């Protein structure tokens, strides 16, 4: 596992920029992240380690990004 420290508005580029994670806001114990990804990359949100979803919950194309 790679652990990084980022500040608000800093980004992390993954897979040669096909995935970009931006720290949108840090408030108290919460961090808001923005994720941009190519249309062919599914984005899955997993609330707990036991929860799984066989299909992507959302993709950039579905959100109009």
Describe this entry's structure for a reader.
InterPro entries: CsrA (IPR003751), CsrA_sf (IPR036107). GO terms for molecular function: mRNA 5'-UTR binding. One of its GO terms (biological process) is negative regulation of translational initiation. This protein is mainly beta. Helices cover 0% and strands 32% of the residues. It has a three-stranded antiparallel β-sheet with strand order 1-2-3, with no helix packed on it. The N and C termini lie far apart (28 Å).
**Rg:** 13 Å
Give the neighbour order of strands across the main sheet: 1-2-3
Strand tally, please? 3
Report on the biggest sheet: 3 strands, antiparallel
What's the tally of helices? 0
Helix content: under 10%
Indicate the proportion of strand residues.
25-35%
Total domain modules: 1
CA-CA gap between termini: 28 Å
The general outline is: globular
- Kindly name the structural category: mainly beta
In sequence order, what are the helices and strands, one letter per element? Answer: EEE
Poorly predicted runs are none
Oligomer: single chain
Please, what is the average pLDDT?
83
């Amino acid at each position: 596992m790679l652990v990084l420290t980022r500040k608000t508005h800093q980004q992390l580029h993954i897979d040669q920029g096909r995935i970009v994670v931006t720290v949108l806001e840090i408030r108290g114990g919460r961090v808001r992240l923005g994720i941009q990804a190519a249309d062919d990359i599914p984005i899955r949100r997993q609330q707990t380690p036991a929860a799984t979803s066989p299909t992507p919950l959302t993709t950039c194309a579905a959100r109009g990004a």
